[in-house]
Write a structure and sequence with these properties.
Number of helices: 5
Shape: rod-shaped
Strand content: under 5%
């Protein structure tokens, strides 16, 4: 009987530690931002940042644009401010 109590106590402590760890780790995560785990500087100008994602994403207009606009990260005029001078071929939704 004493062995079962010890095993139950170890399992309970393990589950409690796991719960505390999950709560602690989730505090730094923004569920509305899929890029939250990457520092902003790296995402904007890093080797695998914005340009890499746009070039390798098959449809950034559909998968990224609406979310960025909804989050207040810039709409069509914001995109055009970089795309036009860079002569990037794009087709933004209306």
């Amino acid at each position: 009987m004493e062995g079962k109590k010890i095993i139950r106590m170890i399992i309970s402590i393990g589950l409690f530690v796991a719960l505390i760890t999950i709560i602690f780790v989730s505090q730094g995560h923004d569920p509305n931002n899929p890029h939250a785990s990457i520092p902003k500087e790296e995402w904007i100008s890093g080797e695998k940042g914005h340009g890499f994602a746009v070039i390798n994403n098959q449809n950034p207009q559909k998968q990224c644009y609406q979310c960025h606009e909804k989050q207040g990260l810039g709409g069509k005029s914001y995109c055009l401010s970089c795309h036009d001078p860079s002569r990037v071929d794009y087709n933004l939704p209306d």
